[in-house]
Amino acid sequence: xxxxVKRWLIALGILVAAAPFWVALWIAFDxxxxxIDEPEPAPPPAAPPKPRRRVEVPxxxxxxxxxLDASKxxxxxxxxxxxxGVLELHVIPKKVDGGAIRLTxxxxxxxxxxxxxxxxxxxxxxxxxxxxxxxVVRVEAPGHLTGYCCDVLLEPGRVAxxxxxxxxxxxxxxxxxxxxxxxxxxxxxxELWRGAEVVGSGTTDSKGAVSMTLPVVGVFRVHVEADxxxxxxxxxxxxxxxxxxxxxxxxxxxGGSVE
Length: 259
Hints:
Layout: H1 2-27, H2 63-73, E1 85-92, E2 102-106, E3 112-116, E4 123-129, E5 134-140, E6 147-153, E7 159-165, E8 171-178, E9 183-184, E10 189-194, E11 197-203, E12 209-213, E13 218-225, E14 229-231, E15 235-239, E16 246-254
């Protein structure tokens, strides 16, 4: 028994003597089982940075530019014929002597939309006219006043009807005499002026008279040219529709010609 106890005491003494060695050995290693003085492995090379995506910044556009861009992708469709205006005109009288009746549809700017001649019953029909825009009709007929009528505002898809009564052109009769003798002047050139426009002209006959049918009305200046004669004063004439000819006498005196 004493021998066994002695052996245990010897083994215990050996363990106690070796304890510092084991403690030192434990400190020499890190938690991962590697020595502290062992060099750390080099870190792997960093990955190259990813290229940044370019972001397009929209440029501000005006409303007009936006509408233009939209029209390029979505061009406007032509208006439906059912949405355009129609104008029917009835002209009285339906026929005139000396030529045809002409009716012209115009925009307020003067742009011509079309010209028609009435049929045998005096009817004309303008189609595909713009609506919601005031339109006018110019009327021309031989022996009748030329002018504008029928302030029309069409509605889409509907027919507008207008009656036009032609007014006979006024007739102006000018008689040219030589003053103070009162003798008739044959072959005198007579012109009626409205501003810078000649609205009527003619040459006197053997009785010194000339008749002119005017397409317009108003106040006109009378201009007379005759060899060796000149008007002593300026003469004007007021012309309006009338049943009888409008007459005026112009006296010339010796002394040259009127320019």
